[in-house]
Amino acid sequence: MGDLFNGYSTGEFFDEMFAAPGQPHPHYQRLYERLGELSRADYDERLRLADIAFLYQGITFTVYSSQDGIERIFPFDLVPRIIPQSEWQLLDRGLRQRVTALNMFLHDVYHEQRIMREGLIPADLVLGAAGFCDQMVGVDPPGGVYIHINGSDMVRDERGRYMVLEDNGRSPSGVSYVLENRSAMKRTFPRLFGRTGVLPVEHYPQALLETLRSVAPRGVEQPTVVLLTPGVYNSAYFEHSFLARQMGIELVEGRDLIAYDNRIYMRTIRGLQPVDVIYRRIDDAFLDPLAFRSDSTLGCPGLFNAYRAGKVTLANAVGTGVADDKAIYPFVPAMIRFYLSEEPLLANVPTYRATEPSDCTYILQNLDKLVVKSVNESGGYGMLVGPHASAAERADFAEKIRAKPRGFIAQPTLALSRHPTFVDGHFEGRHVDFRPYILYGSEITLVPGGLTRVALRKGSLVVNSSQGGGSKDTWVLDE
Amino acid sequence: MLSRVAESLFWMSRYLERAEDVARIIAVNFQASLDAPDASQALAWEPVIAITGDRHMFTAAFGSFDEASVTAFLTRHPENPNAILSCIGRARENARAVREQISREMWEEINRLYHVVYGADVDSIVRNPYDFFSQIRNGSHLFQGVTDATMAHSEGWEFIQAGKYLERADKTARILDVKYSVLAGNTGGEGAPLASLQWIALLKSCSAFEPYRRSHSQLQAWRVVDFLLLDRTFPRSVAFCIEQTRRSLARISDSPLDRPSNAAERLLGRLYAELTYLDIREALADLHIYLDDMQHKLNAVGDSIAQIYFVPSVLPPTLAAPSRYYEAQQQQQ
């Protein structure tokens, strides 16, 4: 049996599924047996059906480089990633601890700035961060919450230890794939679910709505919640409309909103209707042309004033980018100790900051071993994977780092864990990461699951959809 | 309901109806042209272009009115905004813009239909027109059925109905206008058998042949006009479509049918009264003028609906589309 796994090699990496060739970890045993019953033809057929379903449901992202706006489905791999309950418990506790500390950090930097005064984080690093918003100093967001939705990217090293690779505290995307992948798996392998003890994820939109309602401006009993999207041209538009539909709230664009007397209204066929909570999927700079970029056509003039007056909630708050700045990231363990007096439950990846002279020298001397990241980019852009880069690319990055040290950090090239992934008719190991979503309102909520992204190109460490990544369903087991 | 959402639902529905109507017109013409002598091929295909009203654009791009050129122009010519692909593409873009408002089944159907049309090439359509145009007609019908069965029949649904029936009233009037002027004065003598085939084709273009047959034993010009214009029960007659649009608008504004609350309702009420009390001989005196006037009034209804429901009361500065487009792509983490 296990025809499709013939010749599968775990290599020198931690393999999510196999302890040794032919020996799955206990929590993968049942899946391994089921896959072993499938022939190549069975598997191909199931994959084809899943792909057609994704295409017809429009679960696509748009590649805008070509004139046509070609739509591609986010490649979906049918073999789920499985996380046993014991591992999930650790992640759950660690992520709660982390999001709490990040929120306390944001409150602190926009108020007393204790952490800088006590010398734990250099003040210039914080105040010089592109995500630091000086208009937010002294502003009290409703409920005191800044990061309502956090997506921390987790990876595992060669020993299988979970580490936080980065935090996404502005407006993390991808959760719709968590739900759609699950629904695709249920259609494709219906019999597998009941017997395996997979915890559900389908209540995420409800949990998100409750989180958003819990942070409504003071005195609003029945808040009107809306989702603010940049519009149909945005590559995550599918997700925006998906979440709005699942939550039963209006999906608005900036041009649907109007500010009057420090309140925000939406234009309806019956006139103006007040809005209390805005789950915005637009970057800070575009929110309000009066407060930020004056050339923005996506926002609503007057929105920031209404926000500062406490008449409307923005989720996430304005100015959270300072907390997920990659140069601030190395200090998150220190934040946890400082604000919570606890030891961090989840480790960071060792990070070199180009602003530190000794670190900078080390980075420049070891570019062929390190991964260099631009501090404010996401989506796999602005990144150098040293061992895979050409000499010319490395020289180019060295130049950039020397010119602007604040713009870069470097990390050792991790031996990321791998997961069996269907490639050309059989399974091969491919590197994966994991993005769980943490909701922070009047309480903290984690839905047991998340988005497992997989780097489909052989040997590649970059999992982003724009860089040839795919995704898997993620199963958290009840035991 | 957001004004923008109402507008998108209305246009989604109009574009889909337009695609279906164009598909039906071409399909019927393929059937009818099989019976026509070779020499009259151009005669058979030219009016089809006249119905969609894009004659200039056609002659600029194609040399002759043969079936392949007309089919290419009306199915997927990139510059023809009324080509089927373009209509379904725009219906889908509107649906995408209000995706959270429509049911998942509706979205899947319109998206599937788009991929069917997008994947079809003109050669295979001309080789097997029946299959292709049936798929479009069935797709549109399926979409309407799914809409009725899966979406709440509230305001949004009423905007969808209004868009569909307003478009349909316009298309029936156009088909009648163009075909009638070709056929008029050609009802006896040597051309008679060919003419009656054309009358049947006209009815079939509106899916009206069998319903007509059930209520009339004779194929007569004035009866055909009367049926397509005034029949109270046939769902593609102009009077029926106007009545449905009127009822939808009254439900949206929540006002009784005889107490119109806005300009669109008043216009529709007058149109409906006119058709109700029309003596068909008056219209036949100069049918072209009559139908032309009808189409102007239908356009006025559309403009009026836009003024009342879609145009924001306080206008934000309108900015060039490319910058919105560019900015919108950037927001992603």
- State the low-pLDDT regions of chain A, or none: 63-69
Number of strands of chain B: 0
Greatest contact between two chains: A-B, 48 and 37 residues
Distance between the termini of chain B: 29 Å
- Give the strand order of the largest sheet of chain A, numbering strands 1, 2, ... along the chain: 5-25-24-21-20
List keywords for this structure.
heterodimer, A: 479 residues, alpha+beta, five-stranded mixed beta sheet, 13 helices, 25 strands, 29% helix, 25% strand, B: 333 residues, mainly alpha, 0% strand, globular
Question: Can you give a write-up of this model?
Answer:
The complex is a heterodimer of chains A (479) and B (333). Chain A is built from 13 helices and 25 strands. Chain A has 479 residues and is an alpha+beta fold. Chain A has a 5-stranded mixed β-sheet with strand order 5-25-24-21-20. Chain A has a 5-stranded mixed β-sheet with strand order 15-7-6-22-23. Chain A is globular and about 70 Å long. Chain B is mainly α. In chain B, helix 6 runs antiparallel to helix 8 and helix 13 runs antiparallel to helix 14. Chain B contains 17 helices and no strands. The chains are: A alpha+beta (479), B mainly alpha (333).
